[in-house]
Amino acid sequence: MTVSVYLPLLVSVVLAVSVRPLAKALPPRLGLWVLTAAAVIAGVGTVWTSLLLGSLLVDDIPAFDAAERLVPVDDMMSLGAAAFLGTGAVRSCLAVRRLLHTRRRLRRLNAMPGGELLVVADPRPDAFAVPGSRAGGGRVVVTQGMLRALDAGQRRALIAHERTHLRARHSIALSLAELAAAMNPLLVPVRRAVGFLSERDADEGAVAVAGSRRLVAEALAAAARARSASAAASPLAPGFHQFGVVDRVSALLAPEPVTRLRHVWIVGAMTLLAVGAAFDATRDFAWIVQILLRH
Question: Where does the record place the Peptidase M48 domain (predicted)?
Answer without folding.
Answer: 116-173
